[in-house]
Design goal:
Elements: H1 2-37, E1 41-46, E2 48-49, H2 67-71, E3 73-74, E4 76-79, E5 84-87, E6 90-95, E7 101-106, H3 120-133, E8 140-147, E9 150-155, H4 162-167, E10 170-171, H5 174-177, E11 197-201, E12 207-212, E13 226-233, H6 235-243, E14 249-250, H7 257-260, E15 269-271, E16 279-284, H8 294-303, H9 306-313, H10 336-339, H11 349-358, E17 362-363, E18 369-370, E19 378-384, H12 388-402, E20 407-413, H13 415-424, E21 429-433, H14 441-448, H15 470-480, H16 485-502, E22 506-510, E23 516-518, E24 522-523, H17 543-547, E25 551-552
Parallel strand pairs: 1-13, 19-20, 19-21
Antiparallel strand pairs: 2-13, 3-10, 4-5, 6-7, 7-9, 8-9, 11-12, 12-13, 14-23, 15-23, 16-21, 16-22, 17-18, 24-25
Helix pairs in contact: 1-6, 8-11, 9-12, 14-15, 15-16
Length: 555
Amino acid sequence: MALRRRRAAILAAVVTAGALLLSGCAAGAARSSADLDGTQLLTIPREDMGTFDRNFNPFANPDFPMTQVAIYESMLVFNPADGTTTPWLATDWEVAPDGTGITFHLREGVKWSDGEPLIAQDVVTSFALQREIRGGFDYIDTVTAVDDETVAFAFNTPFSPALLDVGQQIIAPSHIWDEQDDPSKFTNPDPVGTGPYTQVTNFQAQSFDLLKNPNYWQPEKQKIEGVRMLAFAGNDGANLAAANGDVDWAPQFIPNIEQAFIAKDPEHRFYWFPTTGSMISWQFNTTKAPFDDVRVRTALSMAVDREQVTSIGMQGYTVPADCTGLSGAYDTWRDASVADSCDWTKHDLAEAGALLDDAGITMGSDGKRVLPDGSPFTFDFSVGTTSSDWVSVGNVISQNLAELGVTVNVAARDWADVVSSYENGSFDSGIVWSNNAPTPYQFFRGVMSTETVKPDGQQTFENYHRYGNAEADALLAQFAATSSEDGQKSVMNDLQALFSEVLPVVPLFPGPEFGAASTLRFTGWPNEDNPYASLGAVRTRSAVLILTTLEPVKG
């Protein structure tokens, strides 16, 4: 493990240096070419990818830049910044009175970028591929194309959160994807989508451009000419590009942002960091002792000084988590009686030590804790090297735990390695982000449902910590079957209380939606006063609201 981490760190350093040089050149070239031909491309850094591989598969590679934002679209778009929902590829829908189905009516006149019409079979194919390649949607029984503009979903159980869950699934063209022998391995180098920017040009390892979809159904909203993505192997390179004015939109962690970014052009630059992102937690692999013991998880949580984590590690951009586990996106669901009554999010070394003693993890003569078998209590905290803010968080936690006699090694390495260890269950502990959906249902399902637990060694895309609770299953099923707002709130209060009792993960802080931008070349950005989208939502469906609102500055 040590050699692997060192090798990954060396490779990351080499890639970072190369990305700084190459991406800097790409950014400069972008500015020069824009000035020469008059084309203004919205330029955005991607801080966690040292290089780009040309793979626009929305099912197997959903996190590739702009794939699920500019190229492919969904039937609905949910905006977490203000809680509104906008009909998109669908114009209206009917929900079955008993919650066991939804019928969507597709928007007339929508075409794919190759000129073919959007039809209901595209929706059928997309859900089949999503379930085959990534899993999920277990509550869906059938998806049926009633006619070319109507698609009906039948559920095997009442499921009240389904509207936005189903509605936000991206839709891909059946006439392309039904022809693929193995859709999971199709790299889709020249994607056909319904989004505003689908035409891939100038694809290089460090940058690529997306130009206008010639058949977009909202041509009046294609006010910008296109999007340019730049690759960086870390925040530092992306932040340098932002400081130098080489990018228009900087949706990443920027330390000391007032001096490092705003002060260089206060007339045009601004930022907005609402704490409505995913809950950021410390997860433990509960298939490994002693992390399967709630007393140990509680002790480790109480050893963390969250004030230091947020003020030092996160530069004061967020606030400490409470015992509900809910981020700021769910303030209306938060049960104050749970948030205010527990003590395991408070820094208390004495109580943490007592809990470890009770669990048989005692202090040795050298001031280090030992497990019941006499071996030292030492383990890794996994985090990606490119996320400098989260690396800092890990360092604060490591220092906090040292005061308890516990050795936590901050194992910073390439994100691909980290996520792979999460998916196969080989990790000890690490930083993790939660599901972030319109209601907290998906959050609690992702951290406590037995349905999301995969055996150790089997790949999983959620519940990396592999914790399941039968009581949580019952409450989640009750929530899904409940349509009244009061009934759902009551069940959600019970889920928060259970979370506080069993600590499936240790919440640290709600993730700020990092978003900084410049009005020098483009106007119409969302902000706190006009939250039509989150400025940090570049990787979510709602970013399409920004792409179809921005306007280039004339002259």
